[in-house]
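Exercise (ungraded).
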Amino acid sequence: MKFDGEHLLPGQIGHFFVVLAFVASILSTIAFYKASRVADENIKRQWLSYAKTIFFIQVASVLTIFFTIFFICSNHYFEYLYAYKHASKELEPKYLLACIWEGQEGSFLLWSIWHCVLGTIFIIKGKSWTAHVLTVISFAQCFLMLMLLGIYIFDVRIGSSAFVLTRNEINGPIFSQPDYLSFIKDGIGLNVLLRNYWMVIHPPVLFLGFASTIIPVSYAYAGMATKKFGEWIKPALPWALFSCCVLGVGIMMGGKWAYESLSFGGYWAWDPVENASLVPWIILIAGLHCMVIFNATGNSLRTAFLFIILANAFVLYSTFLTRTGILGDTSVHSFTESGMAMNILIGMFAIAIPVPMIILYIRNYHLIPSTKKEESISSREFWMFIGSLILFLSAIFIIAVTSVPVYNKIFHTNIADPQDREFTYNKVMVMVAIIVGLLSATTQYFKYRQTNKKYFIKLIALPFVTALVLCILLFIFYPVIYIKQGAGFLGAIYLALFASLFSAIANAGYIWSVLKGNLKSAGAALAHAGFTLMIAGMLISAGNKQVISDNRVTGLLMPFDKDPTGKQTEDPLENLTLIRDVPTSMARYTLTYEGDSAAAEKNRTFFKLIVQKKDSANDKVLEDFELMPDVYKMKDNNLSSNPDIKHYVTHDIFTYISSLPDRSSVADTAKFKLHEMKLKDTVYYSKGFLVLNDVLKNPSTERFHYKPTDTALVADITVYSKAGTSYKSFPALAVQDLHINFIDDTVYAQNLYLQLAGIGQNNTFKIAVKETDIPQDFITLKAYVFPYINLVWTGLIIMAAGFIVSIIKRTKAKPAVALIALIAVVAGLFYMFMLASV
Amino acid sequence: MKSTHIIILVAIAVSIGVLLMYSVDFSTYDTIGSAKQKQGKYVHLIARLDKTQPVIYDAVKDPNYLSFYAVDSLGSSTKVIYHNAKPAELDQSERVVLKGKMQGDIFECDNILLKCPSKYKDDKKQLEKTVTQTNL
């Protein structure tokens, strides 16, 4: 059958290049491998140039695939399932990229693009080891392309192509009609939960972090394959630093996204999906430290190999966890299962590099040189090694608890998350924070091999005392209030807070006291200071996070219906209902819900809240601001709530809508009652009385803009309630094209509806009044205060800057280039984390 | 390097192991029947909303009280009380994971994880439904 209006050419082009990229990646793997094994220089050069050519063909193919998908999605060719699922006509252009990496195929393609970019840079810049490193990258590319292939072998589909047609994939009666495309008006589009600028930035950065771990592991492979075990460390160091920097920033971008636009109530929840990306980063950091130790002293080479291999292995393991749907019941992030065949491919991709690498490592273990001499307790390398080990063990702990769904699958058990998941992690990680803080504070002041005791104590004393004083001041003036888990844990928080502040100060001091302000060598000190500042920020903001919408603390609106179980939960009751126009107190603030307004996007509604903070003594308004949390209403009535945050330098006030009334279900049975009123007449209602002040003809006010030629009347009414409050109300009527329009007005605070129903006799006006018992417009919200959250983001930016300074030093980049790169990254991150959301 | 390292390594590994043993109090996935046997113990129920029974939530009276009935695949049913706002997707959800404790005949829930069809656009059946709805 011939179908109308289909554009089949882009799909054919796309599919052709997928096959080409797949074949090219196999050939380039073989060719690079050959080049790496051949001894003869001439033949080696031939293989290498052949391999590079094929690799570039592969790069070109991957880019073509990407642009083809982009073309299909941007032109809304809904005959393609990928466009139908992920694109839609109402989608703003800025989300076009985001909708491409929303899907499984698109995100693997993104990963593959980064492999291509990194491989190309390596071919251009890398002096030696090219054949070995590119062998591994090309090998990984084979698996990524396999996943995009979508061809049938004996009835089993291998991979999932982004170019399949909607009519072939979905059964539906309409697909038997030749003009089916005219029925498909629009695609499903990007999930509203993901419509956020972080969706454009966070995935590429995170995937670059993931993809870049392949370079250190490729170097490790090269080291073992050539039996020049130590020589890879030096050239691999800048790549490892790069990977640490990008992955770390990528993870925290996810945290910032969750914090500012999702209703998870924070930036980190120890969710399995979050953990899965954190674990490789921690191991990579441990590996990086071992590499630095080896570079300086020749120790810890075996550990460096192991950690670098495992960092990459856990990147792939985390991909396996998040993409196969195995975490389904434990994670709030919704990832779907894409079928057994796809899961097997993902599994193959996850073991393709780690398993051979681990076998290679075990076989070479005894050949890898290790120093027999014992390290001195006063040496820097000893404490760096201990720190790496602690980091590694903490990562193993995190992944062991996160992997519970995997044990369930394998052993058919039914173990579930602990009751308090966050505390399970926090109580172990707070110990890790203490040790890591103390180690990172002191280790820089040790020298490699041996350190003079007096020298060390002299330098470390000042930072130690400063941190101690700072902690005592904090304890007195701004104590941590997290007492939910008892005094022991509170003590641990204080210790961790001291350790991280000590480290931040000690590392900052190091730049001045030891490096004498030489910023070029200050990369490590900056990164450590930034990291520990971030930890301190996390401890303070999480420890002093407060629910301010606690219904038990604030004045209750209405008498509670008694809970039939007769019990109260220990947790604060976090939701507060605000009835429109009724000021409600919340902690030290008074909130008034003033109504909703539609947004530019379809189905999105903003709710306007006026927040006031008054001086309790003299009622003077100290602060007065607006918050506009919003809600997306999805197709099947689901809500997606986006918070609004009021940022201060010292704290954030964070609110989001947790529930909305279902307006259709509120039965309104009340009727209007008609009153004939003269000017200044009074009419009583159940909760007070109202006065008709005036009736204006064609007024031009803030609310109404009538011209003298119009025919419109507006009643000016004041409502006085028994409670002593008064409200203005302006019902109107206007004649337009021989029709009378009644523009009713509602006094929400009194559930009172007013209508100017017409003109009566003897200078009277007909005012219709309706009262209901049910509040007609209200919202339920949650509100938190996050203090000192800016420390977290500031720390992250300093850490990233530290990594970049280190990369610059290790690559001996030109000062001008280096400075521009540093400024660009720091400015970019500062804008994204500190300014863009305000 | 060897001796000190190994001693410290073992000490750390052991202490972390001990910490782990004491710290992680895993819960279990249960059916409503088996949860009723484990009164007061923290469990995870995999169930679905019983749409024949009323869902009670009135944000004006108490925004922190929700009650509904859940049934599991074996057909047993329990009343659930959740001291929090009603998740908007509850009525449409096909499957819920309820975390909490059984207290008598009532399941005191402190966390609800919803599995909603709208999040699952990769699901073929759901896509077929969507196509049919939008076009016919």
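Further reading is listed at the end of the chapter. For now, observe: Residues 106 and 115 of chain B are 22 Å apart (CA to CA). Chain B has a mean pLDDT of 79.
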